[in-house]
Specification:
By secondary structure, this protein is of the alpha+beta class. The protein contains six helices and six strands. It has one domain: SMI1/KNR4-like, CATH 3.40.1580.10. It is globular.
């Protein structure tokens, strides 16, 4: 799904089910804040995730919680994800389902791919998904 299609889908959901967007979002980050987050985590974030953050900020998003780059938020990547965990799992969690499972990006050689997967906390394993980040967010964040 292209970013403009995703934005249209979000706006339609906002009109049809405003309760999904009743909680406040985190601040949209400046490029410098994103760079600071990347430096702390020692990875390059994927473009789709950066586009989402710049438009929506992160935090509560529909039925999910999307980690942000807002250093003052309790939903900040830097407060919720350790660089060591990313390296050991080859995975950057950015969506917290608040069940123990996490959605996010596969990481190869310090660079996040655009490939989305799910970390299963019971199996302590990552499974590779078959969708892009925007489709993933629509499926998990806007549909119940």
């Amino acid at each position: 799904m292209l970013f403009n299609e995703f934005c249209d889908t979000v706006e339609n959901a906002r009109r049809q089910r405003p309760v999904l967007f009743g909680l406040p979002s985190d601040e949209s980050p400046a490029d410098e804040t994103i760079a600071e987050t990347e430096a702390f985590l020692q990875i390059a974030l994927p473009e789709s995730y950066k586009a989402f953050l710049k438009q929506y900020g992160g935090g509560c998003f529909g039925f999910t919680l999307v980690y942000s780059c807002d250093p003052h938020s309790r939903h900040s990547l830097t407060k919720n994800v350790a660089p060591e965990w990313i390296r050991s799992h080859g995975f950057l969690p950015v969506v917290d389902f608040e069940t123990g499972d996490l959605g996010g990006f596969l990481v190869e050689h310090g660079v996040c791919t655009e490939t989305v997967g799910i970390y299963d906390h019971e199996a302590n394993a990552v499974t590779q998904g078959n969708s892009d980040f925007f489709t993933f967010l629509v499926r998990h964040g806007l549909h119940n």
